[in-house]
Amino acid sequence: MENRDEIRDNQNFYNGQTALPNATAVLVLGIVSIVGCFCYGVVGLICGIIALVLYSKDKKLYVQSPQSYTPGSFSNLNAGRVCAIIGLIISAIYFLVVVGFLIFFGSAFLQNPQEIFRQMQ
């Protein structure tokens, strides 16, 4: 006996519906952008931007013919977009904080390097 997923896939096949090509990739990249924000924000920024670009391509496909694609893949696409936006915002903030610290402590070090070394000891 077939399980529910196979039955649902067969129903979608008979209806002529397919999954959006990049829906899963957008979801995965959105999640990675949230997790990747702790890599100084760089990984999160890159994955978030890629996810949003792929989202816009698939959104155009879905708008042209929504009956051709499964509702589940469209839900994954939207969830990936939300994750990508959240990851992008957190990564951008984290990146700006890291750059701010580097600028602040870098300028302090350049003004008086002996004092920095003395305080570190």
SS field, number of helical segments: 5
- Radius of gyration, Cα only, in angstroms? 22 Å
Q: Which ranges are low-confidence, i.e. pLDDT below 50, for 5 or more consecutive residues?
A: none
Alpha carbon gap, first and last residue = 72 Å
Shape: rod-shaped
Number of domains: 1
| Class by SSE composition | mainly alpha
Largest sheet: none
- Please, what is the average pLDDT? 87
Helix content: over 70%
H-E order: HHHHH
Question: Could you tell me the strand content as a percent range?
Answer: under 5%
What's the total number of strands?
0
Brief characterization of the structure:
This protein has five helices and no strands. By secondary structure, the chain is an all-alpha fold.
Characterise this structure.
This protein has 121 residues and is an all-alpha fold. The chain is built from five helices and no strands. The longest helix is centred in the last third of the chain and has 41 residues, at 71-111. It is rod-shaped and about 75 Å long. The model has no long low-confidence stretch (mean pLDDT 87).
